[in-house]
Design goal:
GO molecular function: heme binding; indoleamine 2,3-dioxygenase activity; L-tryptophan 2,3-dioxygenase activity; metal ion binding
Strand order of the largest sheet: 1-4
GO cellular component, one term: cytoplasm
Bound molecules: protoporphyrin IX containing FE
Protein name: Indoleamine 2,3-dioxygenase 1
Structural class: mainly alpha
Number of domains: 1
Order of helices and strands: HHHHEHHEEHHHHHEHHHHHHHH
Number of strands: 4
Shape: globular
Helix content: 40-55%
CATH topology: Methane Monooxygenase Hydroxylase, Chain G, domain 1
Distance between the termini: 26 Å
InterPro entries: Indolamine_dOase (IPR000898), Trp/Indoleamine_2_3_dOase-like (IPR037217)
Keywords: Dioxygenase, Heme, Immunity, Iron, Metal-binding, Oxidoreductase, Tryptophan catabolism
């Protein structure tokens, strides 16, 4: 409920939510090394693409020593350990494709992975918080935060396209930092009825969302759809709502029953969920439930930020009460930019999943004549898991879900412009 009355609460701030001024949700200066005791993990995790390629990863992990997680102390050590263990786990499970997954993660991996996950409040599977937010370093520490000067700490099969996929996503996160920083300005402005400040902050948020869309366009430059679809994507998949692992996965030494976890997806990014709560985008039951579930794959402080934004006075009601043309426009513009981002994202998903999936189906038909590059492309696409053709790595039925979320965003537009 909106109020123009001065508020006695302390101002809303991002301080307690592990959000940095410069990098937003991105982990600042991720560590690149663990204490020497953990070298056996690092030695394998750094070689996952190569060991998967030679079909030796499971062998190496099976004979890895069982290490205690107790010597990991600081947050950034735990994040690096979680990332290394996650990359190993994804490689271990998917090394032989969708038809030869494992039923059990061995205890020397599963037990410390579980412990580290518990301490971080993250699930024991590769998340966006691992693969994107904590998986980067600058080649030249003094250089810019851009594609040329960034590299991953750990990769998965798929070569340059895998690197491109994670780093472009990282740049989308970075482009959102001005938007994130303006969220408290909007909330505090609404609390004290400061129309001009709220309008200005919303204008900055619109610009930042536009910048996110511009960065998302880089996917087409740095990622090859057939490599993403045919080679890399399976390594992001999870063991929940996945027909090729209907029971989930046993984490040996943790619990006898299998556990189910969704795979890594930028649906686990906290950004759009923060914007939705701020702008009052309300999700339909099924897609809303999926998005809420994704919050359990975010660092707890980021999940809490989304919840706390949702508890603030309604921005939309405030705008409607103020009857300020500039404020009205600013909110409309913001929602329009978010809608455009979601529309563009649907195009990306179509290009990187729907089109290659249709091609894969076509390739299963009796042979048609193809030239050399079509044969190579076809070979890659044909390797893609059939179980994931209609599903996202997070397990959703992709297009229905994404279009519903997009349409709910459109419904947030104030009446005049939605016509
Ligand atoms: C090649 C690039 C990408 C592909 C193929 C892709 C694919 C998908 C898919 C299939 C989903 C459905 C949920 C699931 O089951 O995983 C999804 C959701 C989502 N993705 Fe992406 N994605 C890409 C890049 C990105 C990037 C860079 C971002 C920005 C951080 C992003 C943000 C989201 C969000 C926020 C959702 C949840 C739906 C929403 O709020 O609109 N995606 N994505």
């Amino acid at each position: 409920m909106a109020s123009a009355e001065p508020d006695s609460k302390p101002p809303f701030s991002l301080e307690s939510y592990h959000v940095s001024e410069e990098l937003g949700f991105i982990l600042q200066d991720p560590l690149v090394e663990l204490p020497p005791y953990y070298q056996p993990w690092m030695d394998i995790a750094l070689r996952v693409p190569e060991l998967v390629h030679s079909h030796e990863l499971r062998f190496h992990i099976n004979k890895m020593p069982r290490l205690s997680s107790q010597f990991l102390q600081k947050h950034r050590e735990l994040r690096l350990a979680h990332l290394a263990l996650s990359v190993m786990t994804m490689g271990y499970n998917w090394q032989e494709g969708e038809n030869n997954t494992v039923q059990m993660l061995p205890r020397n991996l599963a037990v410390p992975y579980w412990e580290v996950s518990q301490r971080l409040g993250l699930p024991p599977i590769l998340t966006h918080a691992d693969a994107v937010l904590a998986n980067w370093r600058k080649k030249d520490p003094e250089g810019p935060f851009d594609m040329e000067n960034l590299e991953l700490l750990f990769s998965l099969p798929g070569g340059d396209s895998t690197q491109g996929f994670f780093l472009v996503t990282l740049l989308v996160e970075l482009a959102a930092v001005p938007a994130l920083k303006n969220i408290p300005t909007v909330i505090n402005g609404v609390r004290c009825g400061d129309t001009e400040t709220v309008a200005r902050a919303l204008e900055d948020i619109s610009q930042s969302i536009q910048d996110m869309t511009d960065k998302l366009k880089l996917m087409h430059v740095y990622v090859e759809p057939s490599v993403f679809y045919g080679i890399m994507r399976i390594y992001l998949s999870g063991w929940k709502d996945n027909p090729c692992m209907p029971k989930g996965l046993v984490y040996e030494g943790v619990q006898a029953e299998p556990m189910e976890y969704s795979g890594g997806s930028a649906a686990q990014s906290s950004l759009l969920q923060c914007f939705d709560e701020l702008l009052g985008v309300q999700h339909e039951a099924t897609s809303g439930a999926f998005l809420s579930r994704m919050r359990n794959y975010m660092p707890p402080a980021h999940k809490l930020l989304i919840q706390d934004i949702s508890l603030q006075p309604s921005l939309k009601s405030f705008v409607q009460q103020q009857a300020s043309e500039r404020l009205n426009q600013a909110l409309q513009h913001c929602v329009t930019k978010l809608l455009a981002l979601r529309n563009y994202h649907i195009n990306v998903v179509s290009c990187f999943i729907t089109v290659p999936a249709a091609r894969a189906r076509q390739l299963r038909q009796p042979r048609t004549l193809r030239n050399h590059s079509q044969v190579l492309e076809g070979e890659m696409i044909s390797r893609a898991p059939i179980a994931l053709e209609e599903r996202g790595t997070g397990g959703s039925s992709i297009m229905t879900f994404l279009k519903t979320v997009r349409d709910q965003t459109k419904d947030t537009l104030l009446p005049e412009t939605s016509k």
